Amino acid sequence: MAWFSKKPRIATAPEPIEAPSRMQGLWAKCENCDEILYRQELEKNLNVCTHCDHHLPWPARTRLATLLDPDSFEEFDKELEPQDPLGFTDSKKYKDRLKSTRKTLGENDAFISGVGRIDGKQVSVGCFVFEFMGGSMGSVVGEKCTRVFERAHELKCPAIVFSASGGARMQEGIFSLMQMAKTSAAIARFRNVGKPYISVLLHPTTGGVAASFSWLGDVMLAEPKALIGFAGPRVIEQTIRQKLPEGFQRSEFLVEHGMLDAIVPRKDLRAKLGQIIGLLG
Predict the structure, then answer these.
(1) Each residue's pLDDT tens digit in the chain (281 positions)?
(2) Phi/psi zone of residue 16: left (φ > 0), alpha (ψ -120 to 50 degrees), beta?
(3) Which region holds residue 24: left if phi is over 0, alpha if psi is between -120 and 50, else beta?
(4) Is 127 known to sit in a ligand binding site?
(5) What is the gyration radius of the CA atoms in the chain, in angstroms?
(6) 33 annotated to bind ligand
(7) Of 23, 32, 225, 230, which residue is least crowded by CB atoms under 10 Å?
(8) At what angle do helices 60-67 and 266-280 cross, to 10 degrees?
(9) What residue segments make up the domains of the chain, in order of their start?
């Protein structure tokens, strides 16, 4: 046996384990201005920095509970779970990655769907869980999103989708890419009802999600400074070998160039959705 394969004769002392601080979890740092924020105050302000108004990530279930009428949300399709049709493995088996993410987040996949009310008016609604594998769209996410539009068609009510995604889920290959056409076809059928589809683009909305149902809304809204586009700015710069304009693919840039209808701060979003539904719904 080679000398380097033998275990050391002198045991090394284990590294000391730091006891968790009582203050852990009480504070958050703004990723924009680096200000240290009291988490309770941050949550009261809808996860918007009280110093620079930067919109920090907001949990999907909290978003739905806040924007919809109290206790009006009824979740559907919660039992749907992604499978591993390709037996995909990278640094970790896909099925193991799914299992650990489910255990950590308590969610079966990266999308929550159901029915709720805004100002008393019924809506079919879906929201991405970006923390679940970057909000990537696999077969289950595509199916649940499709059912948002099918349910809106059946109930003859408006549809709302809050998108935040890194794009298609590579671990499911063509099964993931098929969801782009599937969701778009569901929107085309929903058009016959004559009710609005409101697409709310969050940070970030990219890849196959941006290239399909997220850009097909009758009304296109976005949060401030959200990154929205198919490929990211760095990939585009490397491809075309040119420097992109300042703020390229941010929601402010897209509004200026006619790609979005409005940028709506988080505190105003519920009122804006109610206004749109009142006018078009």
Answers:
(1) 444 444 444 444 444 444 444 445 799 999 999 999 999 999 999 999 999 999 999 999 999 999 999 999 999 999 999 999 999 999 999 999 999 999 999 999 999 999 999 999 999 999 999 999 999 999 999 999 999 999 999 999 999 999 999 999 999 999 999 999 999 999 999 999 999 999 999 999 999 999 999 999 999 999 999 999 999 888 899 999 999 998 999 999 999 999 999 999 999 999 999 999 999 97
(2) beta
(3) beta
(4) no
(5) 22
(6) yes
(7) 23
(8) 50
(9) 24-56, 58-280
- Longest CA span, the chain: 79
**Superfamily classification of domain 58-280:** 2-enoyl-CoA Hydratase; Chain A, domain 1 (3.90.226.10)
Please report how many Cα atoms fall inside a 13 Å half-sphere around the Cα of residue 156, on the Cβ side.
2
Q: Which residues contact 243 (CB under 8 A, 6 or more apart)?
A: 237
Tell me: is residue 30 an annotated ligand-binding position: yes
Tokens of 49: 């920095």
State yes or no: 52 annotated in a binding site: yes
Q: What is the pTM of this model?
A: 0.89
